[in-house]
Design goal:
With 120 residues, the protein is mainly alpha-helical. It has 3 helices and 2 strands, in the order ββααα. The longest helix is centred in the last third of the chain and has 31 residues. 13% of the residues are buried. The chain binds iron/sulfur cluster (SF4) (2 copies). One iron/sulfur cluster binds next to loops.
């Protein structure tokens, strides 16, 4: 999955709100592995921080990658709005739009296949 993270770091500054992440909290809600707004353990980050692995582990039987990425982006969008730091919001909105279009295009492709099979 090519998740378009804009590296705003906002999700890493709210680990006190994530179940199971309390031991990552530096006392201010910020992950103790966040350095210069980047993950210092990126290659070994937990599954919950890795959209690809998280999708594979918990969501692949429930939705497409595209639907999953769009859902996560909407959460990122809300976190960014809530933080008041909207410098990345346009990139996120554009990415949501792209995923919506991709989803629609996949749906219409699938409908086309269904239609084709029915008309065989
Ligand atoms: S809030 Fe979203 S866009 Fe920002 S760093 Fe986290 S995953 Fe990336
Ligand atoms: S482990 Fe890395 S990606 Fe996960 S919350 Fe901490 S800094 Fe962010």
């Amino acid at each position: 999955m090519n998740f378009p993270c804009v590296q705003c770091g906002i999700c890493c500054k709210k680990v006190n709100t994530v179940l199971g992440f309390q031991h990552f909290d530096d006392g201010n809600g910020v992950c103790c592995y966040l350095e210069n707004n980047l993950c210092s353990i990126y290659k070994d980050r937990p599954v919950s921080c890795n959209s690809e692995k998280f999708y594979e582990a918990f969501y692949k039987d429930r939705m497409t990658e595209c639907e999953f990425a769009e859902k996560i982006l909407r959460i990122c969008h809300d976190l960014i709005v809530e933080s008041g730091n909207k410098c990345n919001i346009e990139k996120i909105e554009k990415a949501i739009e792209d995923f919506e279009l991709k989803k629609l295009s996949n749906e219409s492709e699938n409908n086309g296949k269904t239609f084709k099979r029915r008309s065989d």
